[in-house]
Structure formats: C-alpha cells, structure tokens
Amino acid sequence: MLKLFTKKKSTEVDYNQIRQQELEKISVLLQDKRQSLGWDIESISDNLHITKNMLRAIENGDLSKLPEPVFIKELLKKYSSFLGINIREDIHNFPVETNNYHHRKNIHHKNIIPFHWRINFNSKYLYVIYIALLFFSIKSLNQILQPTPFTTQENIETQNSQDNTPQETTVTENPIKENVDNNTTIPVVNNVNDNPEQLKVNINAQDDSWVRVIIDGNTEFEGILTKGSQREWIATEEFTIRAGNAGGLLISVNEETPKQIGELGQVEEITLNL
User: Fold this and answer.
1) How far apart are CA 234 and CA 192, in angstroms?
2) Residue pair 127/50 in contact by the 8 Å Cβ criterion
3) Pick the CATH number of 15-92 from 1.10.260.40, 3.10.20.90, 3.90.45.10, 3.40.50.970
4) C-alpha distance from residue 228 to each of 72, 179, 204, 211, 249 (Å)
C-alpha cells in the first residue's frame, strides 16, 4: 500500500558539539600563528585586554572556561584580527544558539523512580496551625503599626527644643537679617528625597565589551558596546548587567561618580535594586 503521508523525523542539533568541533579547529590555527610570530600569551593579553586564562582556554579548545557563545565569537574575531590570520569563514560557522532540548533528552534516558508524598493531617492539628499563624500575623502587624521608641523620643526632644528656644534668637545679627531689612526675598531650599523612585544607569564604554542588560525582569539589550559608545537605561525596580569585559565599562547610577564593576577582560554580573 502506498503511503501518501509520512511523518518527518525531527532532527535535533547539538550546538555544544558543533561549537566544540569548530573551536578545536580554530584553536590550532590561532596557536600555530601565534607561535610562528613569536608572541607569548602574556604579551597578547596586555595588548588585547583579554585575560591569560581566556586565551589559554581558546587555544586549548576548553569551552567550560569561556563565557557565552556570542562573546566567544567576538573574542575569536579580536584574537584572529590581532594575529593577522583570515579565518572569517571558520568563525562564521561557530554557532551561538543554545540547546533547548538537551535537558529533556537527559530526562527521558534516566531511570527516574517516582516519589510520592503521603502525609495525613488530622483536622485538629490543622486548626492549631491556623490559630498559631493568625496569632503571629496579628503580633507582626501590631509591631509594624506601633511607633518605635526612637521616633517617639526624637519627637519629644524636637518639641522641647522648640518650646525652650528664646525669643531673642530670631533677631540675632547675621546675613539673613540684612536681607530682611533690605526687603529682599530669602530663597527656600526644599528637602531632597534620599530615596530615588527609579534607577537611572549610564554606561560609558572605554573598551569593546559584550553586555546583557535586564530591566525589571526583561532583557532590554544584548550585544557589543564598542569603545566610545554611551547608553542610558531607566529601571523602576531592578537593574541587572552582565559584562564580558567589566573593566572596559564605566557605570554611573543616578548621576553618581562613574565606577568600574571589574577588571579588564573579566566577566562580571551585578544587580541593582531600589
């Protein structure tokens, strides 16, 4: 009987294996070229601002000691360009995709013994737990609503200082009195709120760096910030940044003094919260 409809077999690609194969092939070319030019790892690390451990991991084809695939690809471009070797096609074949099926495949092949929880609760024990939870909830709420003794003492001291202030202190000779006599307006300075309502983050790239920015749980940017570029993001709750070259970035939060979050060539991740 002729089968008109056949079910296509889904092909699953192991990107990790492809990456390993491509990296091993590229690493041989880079190492041979470096040795033929007479360069050592330390000198190249100083020129490219890439750590010696990363350079050794690239030449040894060790993916476990390297960052995300997209950043590895940029490292290979930078390394090959410095050595003057044309391996664009090999780098182009280096995949950056992830294996979403890998975890499921391992689960299917493992002999997993199901475990069932069997807990029998007596109704009277549930009632006791409910009463205990209710008691601690009321106690915690009472502690939150009750003013602290430090606040009460501070208010008392402030009130006493106002009551005991002599009347003559309001007419002491100072620059403010002179302004009042001349009918000039005295500026009023408003209190500054120490608690910001948002996180305003400015990033100034001093060197090329791969960056991933997550704002309030959503990935807003993932790519390469080139040297000299500046970016600004605003978060209302949480700001997370992961940088492949942490020493090449200057980060300022709410217009404070810019700071580095790590060393040159170092992979770092920080999270800021309101």
Assistant:
1) 20
2) no
3) 1.10.260.40
4) 22, 49, 7, 14, 10
What are the pLDDT digits (tens) for 90-125?
999 899 887 654 444 444 444 444 445 555 556 667
pTM: 0.43
pLDDT, tens digit, 9 for 90 and up, residues 14-46: 888 899 999 999 999 999 999 999 999 999 999
Domain boundaries, the chain: 15-92, 199-273
User: Per-residue b/e over 170-207, b at no fewer than 16 CB within 10 Å?
Assistant: eeeeeeeeeeeeeeeeeeeeeeeeeeeeebebbbbbbb
Contact 201, 195 (CB under 8 A): no
